[in-house]
Every structure is written in structure tokens, then in C-alpha cells.
Amino acid sequence: MDRRTFIKATTVGGASLAIATGLSRGRAMGAQSKTGSAPVPGRRGRRTNFILCDDGFRNFSTRGAVRGYKVKIRVPSYRGIYLSCIEDLALSVDNQKVNPDTITFCVNGKRFLLSQLPDLYAEYWFTLDKAELEVYKPGGLKPGKHDLEFKLTTRTPYANYDYTKYRCSITTVKKSLSLES
Question: Fewer CB atoms near the end CB (10 Å): N or C, the chain?
């Protein structure tokens, strides 16, 4: 589905989360299915297993040397967000926190340091687009399964209180991923 089709579909009935995730509207909003399976635990019972993508977890190299690893992520909401609305982003691999100074946030064909995100009020992360986190770690990660924990805190720009405080949503996802070769 291209962006134009997605935008047209989201204006009818508010079912954009269902469209983005490919689920029925009730399942996308966290309702139990008829078979009794519960939604994946997350923010307010929402499904969060789609945020850390199964594809794209791999080491990357330049000039023949492995410089680090990449992991793909998705927006944890049915709406896209401006990058300036990202309040905090944290990643842990195998129970070790990743230094934020070693992470580059890549979206829309552009690369940004996490320290640049608060100033990017015109750069938009669309709901269906995958962003990529590049983590610089000489030698990368060893092949095999790794336990990842990703925490994203986003500010809702249209939900402010007394013009100084905004509603923030915290999404934490834990997932085991296999490093692609």
C-alpha cells in the first residue's frame, strides 16, 4: 500500500492502526480474538511486537571492517511522528545498555545523531516507514540470537496541558532476534 492510499484509507472510520498492522480494527486496538489469544503486553494492552522488526538486524561494514550493527524499528503508534517529538530512545542488547552517543537514527534516507532529534521539527517519520538504528561497535555482534530491549518515549504535540507540559507515551519492547549474515 502506498502513502496516498494509506492516507485516503485513514480518513474513513479512523481505522488507520488496523490498516497499518494488517489486523481487524478490534485486534489492532488490543481486543481478544475469538480463539482467546491475548494481545502482546505493551502500552495499554496494545500490540508492540511489530516495533522491533524481524528483518534488518545485521552487522554493517565499511572498507572491509565491521563497524557495528543495525536494527530496524517502526513507529509505535497509528500516527506518524515528527522526530522532534522523540523525547528519549534507549536500546539494550543482551542486557547491556547501548551508549546513546554511538547510535545514529536513519529515516527517509537521512541519518541523524540522537542529540539532533529535538531540533528536527520538520522531519516526519511516517507510520508505515521503518527507521534504522545504526550502532557503532567495532567488530559488531557475534552471530546468533540476541535479546534486545527497545524503549521509546514520544511526546504528543497536540495533547498539551497549560502550554508547557505534553502527554508522553513510553513504549518498551523486548524481543529476541537472530543476527542476519
Answer: C
Separation CA 100–CA 55 (nearest Å):
22
Q: Are the C-beta atoms of 157 and 121 separated by less than 8 Å? A: no
Per the listing, cell 545514529 goes with 104
pLDDT per position as a tens digit, 40-89: 344 454 567 789 999 999 999 999 999 999 999 999 888 899 999 999 99
Strand-pair partners of 129: none
C-alpha–C-alpha distance, residues 168 and 155, integer Å? 4
Closest CA to 120 of 132, 106, 134: 106
Q: Where are the domains of the chain?
A: 1-39, 48-178
Print burial letters for 15-33: b (CB count within 10 Å at least 16), e (below 16): bbbbbbbebeeebbbbeee
pTM over 0.85: no
Instruction: Say how far apart CA 48 and CA 50 lie, in whole Å.
Output: 5
* φ, ψ at 148 (rounded to 5°): -110, 145
Q: Is the dihedral of CA 90, 111, 115, 154 positive or negative?
A: negative
3-state secondary structure of 81: strand
